[in-house]
Amino acid sequence: MKKSIALLLALVLCLGMLTACGGSKNTPSSATDVPPQTPPASSTDVTPPESAAPEADSDMAYVKDKGVLVVGITDFAPMDYKNEAGEWIGFDADMAKAFAESLGVDVEFVEINWDNKILELNAKTIDCVWNGMTLTDDVKAAMECSNAYCNNAQVVIVPADKAADYQTVESLKDLSFAVEAGSAGEAEVAALGYSSTPVTAQSDALMEVAAGTSDAAVIDSLMAAAMVGEGTGYPDLIYTLGLNSEEYGVGFRTGSDLAAALNDFFSKSYADGSMIECAETYGVQAALIGQ
Fold this sequence. Notes:
This protein is α/β, with parallel strands linked by helices. The protein is built from ten helices and 13 strands. The chain has helices at residues 2-23, 59-66, 91-103, 117-122, 137-142, 184-192, 202-211, 221-227, 258-271, 274-282; strands spanning 68-73, 81-82, 88-89, 106-111, 128-134, 144-145, 150-152, 154-159, 177-180, 196-199, 216-220, 237-242, 246-252. Strands 1, 4, 5, 6, 7 and 13 form a six-stranded mixed β-sheet that branches. The longest helix is centred in the first third of the chain and has 22 residues, at 2-23. The protein is globular.
């Protein structure tokens, strides 16, 4: 009898221990007992480092926000000049108006000192330089330039009665030249090693030759065609020889997205004939290059 009782007590004790062990497992008894799980981090949760640079400002957005494209120019027929009503016209002026219209903004023309064009641009007193600007290496390094849209050359201007004496580069060596400061003409004379006097504008260079204070001037061929010779304001002046060949472009601030927008505008206006028609109005040779 005692053995039976002992065996029974041992069996009860063993069952109690098994029940206790089963209750100690970590398996939850219901869904409400599930501990919260930390979701894996997604790429959108990653905080960028503080050193990450913000995107550059958009010139397009800047111009559209203020509602006006400010164009830096000089008085330079047939590209930019005033009609009898005092309005700016010319091949560049008319194309600038059309480009501004395509952006949905007004246009404003501001006369600048050509030698300070890059300073004016970077100071945001103007938004672009659109004035028969030669695409030199220096210009392209300092601005975001459009594709070339017009062909040009630097030509020598002398009194008509002396033209026969100055038909070669060598024959020019003893002349005194008037040139626009910061212009391609000034660069060409300097490259030849000849002396020159810088003036504010190409029109001033013509005045110097007409007055006899300079022997010759070097200006853009497009201006020469409009300004010197029979039927012009300087009938007693004439151009003799070209010193180079070059291309015109429009300059924006470095990195500006307006340059690409203008290239697209040039392509479309050239294709639909409006650019060529405008060029013919002002006696300009439009040439869409670099597409």
